[in-house]
Design goal:
By secondary structure, the protein is mainly alpha-helical. The radius of gyration is 10 Å and the shape is globular. The chain contains 4 helices and no strands. The longest helix has 12 residues.
């Protein structure tokens, strides 16, 4: 998954403002207790980060 695809999905799912806030502030256990931004900066793939977001926020299969 490309990073641009990741952000499109985040914005579509949460709305642009909330997606940005969530990515900066919400710590996700599945990402080693990192935020989305920290995980991406640490080199975790966008696909892996997206999977963690889906698990954490119980994203319906149709939106994954």
């Amino acid at each position: 998954m490309r990073l641009s695809d990741f952000w499109q999905r985040m914005h579509a799912l949460f709305g642009e403002a909330y997606a940005e806030s969530l990515a900066k502030d919400y710590v996700i256990e599945e990402l080693g207790s990192r935020t989305v931004r920290q995980a991406l900066a640490d080199g975790i793939s966008a696909k892996e980060v997206w999977r963690a977001v889906c698990v954490t926020f119980d994203v319906p299969a149709r939106a994954r």
